[in-house]
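User: Can you help me understand a structure? I only have the sequence.
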Amino acid sequence: MGCCDSKDIKTVVREKYGQIASASQSDCGCGCGCGGGEPEAFSVFKDDYTGIEGYVPEADLNLGCGIPTEYAGIKTGDTVIDLGSGAGNDCFVARQLVGESGEVIGVDMTPQMIDKARANAEKLGFTNVKFRLGEIENLPVTANKADVVISNCVINLVPDKYMAFHEILRVLKAGGRFCVSDVVTEGHIPEPLLEQAELYAGCVAGALPVDQYLDIIRKTGFKNIEVKKKKPIEIPEALLHEFLTETEVQTYRKSGVGLYSVTVTADKPSCLCGCGDVGM
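Assistant: Let's start by predicting it. Here is the structure, written out as tokens:
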């Protein structure tokens, strides 16, 4: 979607998330980007973390579209990598699950986010949560490092999703798993409506059709691919009526076509030598 090349997309995303990190949480609170419109409109994706052990409100900038730790199967002593870790929200939840004997590594390409996350970790006194500046398509992590990889509403913003999932495969240990919450599309969304939806909620940019998204994961070599959770992302009525007739709006609402938040899990095969351990 859109006319920007991958370099332009990364520049826009880095600048936007840098602005969010620099703003106070109370002043922003805009899930997936502040880019126009009313701030409250941008938290359409957000799941409620209240009551989850390890949740640190100061680290929650309302940028997620799910709770990836919910289905990640994180155990005590695990090494967890969070892609697009922001101010550290999901890292701190994961840290509660891995305990003192585990390790959590957050990776983000925005320097301001890394600074904010490190400040949060220092304030909390966590020594086993580290944050590294880097890009998802070229992770600053050695191969076979993680038991679990998580990510929350970030991979859809990555221009090269094949490389993103190849990197996840590389850094996971054999038999490890990932759990990713992300934004996808289903069915044909009228292009003018989709473009306006991107303005309404910045995370929509780069979202793929769900079948294509899952196919990339499959072709990368993961097995046991499951959509654990799927929820519709409501486009406001005013936006629909601006571009569609009343009849078209009703048809659109009933068709199942639209934007969705999905939480997907998959496993890295325990054998990558062509021994038949790859598949759904």
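Now, to help you interpret it: Residues 6-22 form the longest helix (17 residues). The chain is about 30% helix and 20% strand. Let me know which part you'd like to focus on.
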